[in-house]
């Protein structure tokens, strides 16, 4: 413990608030909250901890704290700080999936769509659904029953959906707001449990069609009834009421926590969410933070009720998430909370040993790699690779591994600007220069180790830029490949020499994964560029020009050159609005040199 931390610990207040732990670079690596800051923060630097907490504490060289007036304020502030800084030790919900929803859009002529992006807009959302297949099957059923608009942009004339009686054809015929509102209400009623009445009505229509000897119509109605039964009524568990609830349970052991969430919609269990993660705070407060982040960060729509186990601070949670939170004490609701708790315990017991072993193996590989190179443990590794075919479309890519795991949100890809022809050394110089000029300019954290794909030449080029141009002193190694394009050796030092790595060791597997991943990412970016024709990519970049307008322009003008030379009138005659036509001409004539991409995040 350094003197700065000792001095700050001595004056910590005994009030609620949040604390922010920092590493040697000044980067915030963990954010927590407590109802008594003095006790919680001191606990990190006293007593025994498990391995994961020890690693966190070893990295802490300073901390800050913010006092709040209540636990509710502390919880909300913690959520905002985590969202702002994305600390690496706050792993809750980073990898969790989002569930699909059905949405009736708030447009003049609404559409029914499947989406995972829940927004505060004029649309109506229904779900979540267990998976995208279930959501699409339900949408397919509703499309047959209710003729809302199907197309993304209004066409010039009616399409096949109109002739199939699945759209009212607002593109060609007048459809009133009242008609649309009635259809939306029918869909809402259907998804809120009214499908049973719909099915009853369809059965009567099917019988009527049979009596009238309209067997084709009767068969169509029968298929719709069967579809309703298969989509809407095959549920795992039911309750007597129709209330939407989320039911939370959790279990913890040895620094790991498992949280289970049951989604009850219309009285039926449609899905569960399972999350397993390490934690560093009080278990109950960690569980509280998990639920708050579940709604505040992932935008899950609030159900009517949230059910939680005994000992959960209901008042604080209700103040943060603004919905009804209950601790059921008897009956079916209590049984469901206990079932969620039981499932969490079972999941933790089943997966704990595997995950713990994998965690230890990965961390040990990073530590061993540092020992082999005689450097501090390289928690953050940045690796570079170049890709081109005989100099065509040269690109480079950078991947980041944090504590031995790929950190895809930190990936970067580059178009090479200045190098002409297949010059791998100069390409490496350019990209390393661009990356670390930006790091210095934006005061970003430097890596603990830089890896270049290649041998002594690539290493020399990268080191020259780092040391002689930028004045950066970061360990750098090279990864050479054999004639089968597989990782053969790790090079390090000045002059570079082979590092003795056992090919069956975890640290060798680590550098192999890094090399394979950066190569994969560079190749995928190169293929992406080669797959785009210059014409297509240039037009794709223009706001307001989608696939339909691009085809229209190219069909009429034949080439981008002719579009550049056209006037606004000749473009607007194609049905393109004047503001968009003006944007097209400005964009094409201001970008004749097709400037290369800047450093940009990976989209994977």
UniProtKB/TrEMBL annotation:
It is found in: Cytoplasm. This is UvrABC system protein C. The UvrABC repair system catalyzes the recognition and processing of DNA lesions. UvrC both incises the 5' and 3' sides of the lesion. The N-terminal half is responsible for the 3' incision and the C-terminal half is responsible for the 5' incision. Belongs to the UvrC family. PANTHER family: UVRABC SYSTEM PROTEIN C, UVRC/OXIDOREDUCTASE. The gene is uvrC. It comes from Halobacillus kuroshimensis. Pfam families: GIY-YIG (PF01541), HHH_5 (PF14520), UVR (PF02151), UvrC_RNaseH (PF22920), UvrC_RNaseH_dom (PF08459). Residues 196-231 form the UVR domain. Residues 199-238 form a coiled coil. SUPFAM superfamilies: C-terminal UvrC-binding domain of UvrB (SSF46600), GIY-YIG endonuclease (SSF82771), RuvA domain 2-like (SSF47781). Residues 14-91 form the GIY-YIG domain. The keyword Cytoplasm applies. It comes from the Bacteria.
């Amino acid at each position: 413990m350094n003197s700065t931390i000792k001095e700050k610990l001595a004056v910590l207040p005994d009030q609620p608030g949040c604390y922010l732990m920092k590493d040697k670079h000044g980067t915030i690596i963990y954010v927590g909250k407590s109802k008594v800051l003095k006790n919680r923060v001191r606990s990190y630097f006293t007593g025994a901890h498990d391995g994961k907490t020890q690693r966190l504490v070893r990295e802490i060289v300073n901390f800050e704290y913010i006092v709040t007036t209540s636990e509710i304020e502390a919880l909300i502030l913690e959520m905002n700080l985590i969202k702002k800084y994305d600390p690496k030790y706050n792993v809750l919900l980073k990898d969790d999936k989002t569930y699909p929803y059905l949405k009736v859009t708030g447009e003049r002529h609404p559409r029914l769509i499947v989406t995972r992006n829940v927004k505060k807009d004029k649309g109506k959302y229904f779900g979540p659904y267990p998976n995208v297949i279930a959501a699409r099957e339900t949408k397919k059923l509703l499309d047959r029953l209710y003729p809302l608009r199907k197309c993304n942009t209004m066409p010039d004339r009616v399409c096949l959906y109109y002739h199939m009686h699945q759209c009212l054809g607002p593109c060609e015929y007048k459809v009133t707001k009242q008609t649309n509102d009635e259809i939306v209400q029918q869909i809402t009623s259907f998804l809120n449990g009214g499908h049973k009445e719909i099915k009853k009505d369809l059965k009567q229509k099917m019988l009527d069609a049979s009596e009238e000897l309209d067997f084709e119509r009767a068969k169509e109605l029968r298929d719709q009834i069967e579809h309703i039964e298969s989509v809407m009524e095959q549920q795992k568990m039911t309750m007597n009421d129709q209330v939407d609830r989320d039911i939370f349970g959790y279990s913890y052991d040895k620094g790991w926590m498992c949280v289970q969430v049951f989604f009850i919609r219309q009285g039926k269990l449609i899905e569960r969410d399972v999350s397993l993660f390490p934690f560093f705070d009080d278990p109950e407060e960690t569980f509280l933070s998990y639920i708050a982040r579940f709604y505040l960060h992932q935008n899950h729509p609030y159900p009517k009720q949230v059910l939680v186990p005994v000992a959960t601070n209901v008042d604080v949670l209700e103040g943060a998430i603004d919905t009804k939170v209950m601790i059921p004490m008897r009956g079916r609701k209590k049984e469901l909370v206990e079932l969620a708790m039981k499932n969490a315990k079972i999941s933790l017991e089943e997966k704990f040993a595997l995950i713990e072993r994998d965690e230890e193996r990965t961390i040990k590989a990073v530590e061993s790699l540092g020992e082999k190179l005689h450097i501090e443990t390289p928690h953050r590794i940045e690796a570079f690779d170049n890709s081109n075919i005989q100099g065509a479309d040269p690109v480079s890519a950078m991947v980041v591994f944090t504590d031995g795991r790929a950190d895809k949100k930190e990936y970067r890809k580059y178009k090479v600007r200045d190098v002409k022809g297949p010059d791998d050394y100069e390409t490496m110089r350019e990209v390393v220069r661009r990356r670390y000029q930006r790091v210095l300019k934006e005061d970003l954290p430097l890596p603990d180790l830089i890896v270049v794909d290649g041998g002594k030449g690539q290493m020399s080029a990268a080191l020259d830029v780092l040391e002689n141009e930028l004045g950066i002193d970061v360990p750098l190694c090279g990864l050479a490949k054999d004639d089968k394009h597989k990782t053969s050796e790790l090079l390090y030092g000045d002059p570079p020499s082979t590092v003795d790595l056992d090919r069956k060791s975890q640290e060798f597997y680590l550098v192999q994964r890094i090399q394979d991943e950066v190569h994969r990412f560079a190749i995928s970016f190169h293929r992406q560029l080669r797959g785009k024709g210059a014409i297509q990519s240039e037009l794709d970049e223009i706001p307001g020009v989608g696939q339909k307008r691009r085809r229209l322009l190219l069909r009429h003008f034949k080439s981008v050159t002719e579009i550049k030379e056209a006037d606004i009138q000749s473009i607007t005659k194609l049905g393109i609005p004047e503001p968009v036509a003006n944007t097209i001409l400005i964009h094409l004539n201001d970008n004749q040199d097709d400037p290369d991409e800047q450093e940009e995040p990976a989209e994977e």
